[in-house]
User: Fold this.
Amino acid sequence: IILAGGNNNRMRELSNKSSEGRYSLDIQQYISDRLDSQISWYSKKSQHAKKMYRTFQVADIIIAASIPLLSAYTIENATIAIIVGILGAIITITEAVSKLYRWHEEWIEYRFTCEALKRHKILYLTNSDPYDNTQEINGKLLVSNVEAIISSENKQWKVNSFEMPEKKASN
Assistant:
């Protein structure tokens, strides 16, 4: 596999410079050092986002369900009325934090990216379409497809990270 230019210092460390000034990299080394690490990273990030999203959602459900039960006793006890108000504020805070960190969206996006990377790895390893050509063509195609998936996800992350809150609310 030949990698032209670029700023990826880690990939340069893993490769050898050819006489044409390009870097060559063994496809198995690319799979183990780049593809597998990306699959692992996206999988871990997806699992974390899923855990955080579900934790906050369960907390919201439990707190929201307790408010009507406690509301019946607010006439008799002012302290319970204050507790109900605090619980309502907690729901607002947990929802705002959940939206701020975008755990639901990240769970889905990172899982999708992870599965797409795994899919291409399996297709490559089994010489399945589109990886049913020569080994050199297959390797170049795998690198191209993997880097396109990662680049696309990175661009989407950048768009989501810098999107204005008013724009998100209108969607």
Summary: The chain has a mean pLDDT of 86.
